[in-house]
């Protein structure tokens, strides 16, 4: 790779230039596509944990946040954000710019991986499909851990299939200090290599199944990827007394998820996430259909190549490990938790379509169009707003509500739930200029609102909003057992209708806004509301 004098060879320089050019092209496309979203205030978990934690690090240098309860998440993303804020500006636009750099780096790793196991055509199509897939697109500019973990995991896999074990080890070791669950990939590879070694020693077969042949000791090297994470957890336990975050966080994401029925249900939901969610079924069903067709021929008369079987098995092991792990742990079944493996599924599907379907590019274009459609138009089933541009509607509505409350109820007590309680009390999140007085409630379920109705002397105005997004006409909405199981195992509740809430609390709806069933409502309590104030508030109406 280098000349005797230490200067990189021309081949290495060409590879560096090629990677830099690809990164620049990918980042530019991401930046232009996300330009309308860059100045949005922070959303949900951004506002609730990651931004406060990064801000604490910026202001005090503390790796463990003090303005919010620690979840034991590793600090790598917070260090990245604090770095950009330190040397640029503390604004949402800078945050989202920094996250787009990570997303571009992830797509560059996917491009390297796809080219190594397939060809440039498959690589380009895979990168475009992945970038436009709603979950990946929405997460590209949001300050969550999953994109950074996905980037390091994809680069680790790229180095692994390029047979660069040291580089793969470095990337796989960085991934868990981006997000602790990223340890799944190197552990899965370790287990697979041990299995291959056992298969060869017991049956004299299996040499073609594994990318790396060697001894169990070589396989166990991947356990070194856990060392940085173990050091972090030891430090976290030393400072806080808890290894895995505060007890409530551990209960919600660990011990409370171990019910066998819940695991089975979560497994089914995760299978849907991996194979069909947000029109992903267009690619997976297309690839399944293509498997019944014979391979096509290249111009030289040879069969179009498949991704090598030993590589496909590595992908399958990693995907299966993520599927099982996130069916057992994780209180919220968020699609973004599977972000490191969505690109692998897309890559296999695109490669299969190219190998067996004449007009495979048409199928890829159709998938991209449908991805964009679901990105902008919500599907007829329940999703998390952060998986599409629904999160933008949420942020716009909450910003409008915050402006109204600041203008007309600056000295009043506002009853609301998290994360709006943080939005109204922490100006650095981008919603208010001065903190408001907030009375916190758990959620807007019937039970919580009934409790609030017995303490109306403690608040003056109510800020309601949709905490669970529901489609206007949901598929399978008539199945009663579905709701019961979601309430029992997945923290589901139904938000009280604003008109019912106003009647229960002795007030009236002063403002209501609805965008694709993402809604907010401001309710004035009659005892503090005067006619001139109510008449001066301009209703934003329904949209």
SSE layout:
Layout: H1 10-34, H2 45-60, H3 76-87, H4 92-117, H5 120-132, H6 134-139, H7 146-161, H8 165-174, H9 184-203, H10 216-220, H11 227-240, H12 247-253, H13 260-275, H14 281-290, H15 309-328, H16 342-356, H17 360-376, H18 390-408, E1 413-417, H19 420-425, E2 437-441, H20 446-453, E3 461-465, H21 480-489, H22 498-505, E4 507-515, E5 518-525, H23 531-536
Parallel strand pairs: 1-2, 1-3
Antiparallel strand pairs: 3-5, 4-5
Helix pairs in contact: 1-4, 2-3, 3-4, 4-5, 4-7, 5-16, 5-17, 7-8, 9-15, 13-15, 14-16, 16-17
Describe the model:
β1, α19 and β2 form a beta-alpha-beta unit. α9 (184-203) packs across α15 and α16 runs antiparallel to α17 (360-376). The protein starts with 9 loop residues before the first helix and ends in a 7-residue tail after the last helix. With 543 residues, it is mainly alpha-helical. It has a five-stranded mixed sheet, with helices on both faces. Helix content is 56%, strand content 6%.
Query: What percentage of amino acids are in beta strands?
Result: 5-15%
Name the average pLDDT.
90
Question: If you compute it from the alpha carbons, what radius of gyration comes out, rounded to the nearest whole angstrom?
Answer: 25 Å
**Number of DSSP helices?**
23
Helical content (DSSP H or I, runs of 4+): 55-70%
What can be said about this structure in brief?
This protein is mainly alpha-helical and about 550 residues long. It has helices at about 10-35, 45-60, 75-85, 90-115, 120-130, 135-140, 145-160, 165-175, 185-205, 215-220, 225-240, 245-255, 260-275, 280-290, 310-330, 340-355, 360-375, 390-410, 420-425, 445-455, 480-490, 500-505, 530-535; strands at about 415, 435-440, 460-465, 505-515, 520-525.
């Amino acid at each position: 790779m280098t000349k005797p004098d230490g200067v990189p060879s021309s081949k290495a320089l060409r590879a560096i230039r090629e990677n830099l050019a690809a990164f620049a092209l990918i980042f530019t496309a991401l930046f232009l596509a996300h330009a309308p979203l860059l100045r949005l205030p922070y959303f949900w978990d951004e506002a609730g944990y990651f931004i406060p934690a990064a801000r604490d690090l910026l202001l005090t240098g503390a790796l463990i946040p003090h303005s919010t309860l620690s979840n034991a998440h590793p600090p790598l993303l917070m260090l990245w954000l604090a770095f950009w804020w330190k040397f640029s500006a503390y604004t949402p636009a800078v945050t989202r710019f920094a996250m787009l750099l990570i997303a571009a780096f992830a797509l560059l790793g996917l491009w390297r991986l796809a080219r190594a196991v397939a060809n440039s055509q498959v690589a380009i199509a895979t990168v475009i499909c992945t970038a436009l897939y709603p979950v990946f697109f929405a997460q590209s500019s949001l300050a969550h851990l999953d994109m950074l973990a996905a980037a390091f995991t994809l680069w680790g896999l790229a180095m692994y299939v390029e047979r660069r074990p040291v580089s793969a080890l470095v990337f796989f070791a960085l991934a868990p200090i981006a997000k602790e669950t990223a340890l799944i990939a190197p552990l899965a590879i370790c287990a697979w290599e041990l299995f291959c070694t056992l298969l060869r020693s017991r049956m004299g077969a299996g040499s073609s199944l594994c990318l790396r042949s060697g001894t169990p000791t070589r396989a166990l090297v991947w356990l070194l990827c856990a060392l940085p994470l173990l050091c972090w957890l030891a430090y976290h336990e030393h400072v806080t007394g808890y290894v895995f975050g505060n007890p409530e966080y551990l209960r919600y994401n660990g011990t409370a998820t171990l019910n066998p029925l819940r695991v089975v249900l979560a497994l089914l939901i995760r299978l849907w996430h991996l194979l069909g969610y947000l029109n992903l079924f267009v690619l997976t069903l297309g690839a399944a259909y293509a498997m019944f067709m014979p391979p096509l021929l290249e111009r030289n008369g040879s069969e179009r190549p498949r991704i090598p079987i030993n590589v496909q098995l590595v992908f399958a092991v990693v995907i299966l490990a993520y599927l099982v792990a996130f069916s057992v742990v994780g209180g919220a079944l968020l699609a973004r938790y599977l972000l490191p493996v969505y690109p692998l599924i897309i890559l296999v599907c695109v490669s299969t379509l190219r190998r067996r379907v004449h007009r495979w590019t048409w199928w890829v274009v159709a998938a991209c169009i449908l991805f964009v459609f679901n990105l902008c138009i919500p599907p007829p089933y329940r999703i998390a707003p952060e998986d599409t541009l629904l999160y933008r509607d949420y942020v716009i509505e909450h910003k409008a509500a915050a402006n109204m409350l600041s203008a007309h109820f600056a000295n009043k007590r506002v009853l609301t739930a998290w994360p709006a309680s943080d939005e109204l009390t922490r100006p650095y999140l981008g919603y208010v200029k001065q903190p408001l007085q907030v009375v916190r409630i758990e959620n807007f379920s019937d039970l919580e609102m009934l409790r609030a109705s017995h303490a109306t002397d403690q608040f003056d105005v109510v800020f309601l909003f949709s905490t669970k997004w529901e489609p206007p006409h949901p598929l399978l909405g008539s199945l009663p057992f579905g709701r019961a199981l979601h309430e029992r195992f997945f923290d589901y509740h139904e938000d009280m209708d604003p008109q019912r809430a106003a009647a229960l609390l002795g007030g009236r709806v002063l403002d209501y806004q609805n965008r694709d069933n993402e809604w907010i409502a401001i309710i004035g309590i009659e005892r503090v509301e005067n006619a001139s104030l109510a008449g001066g508030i301009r209703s934003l109406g329904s949209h």
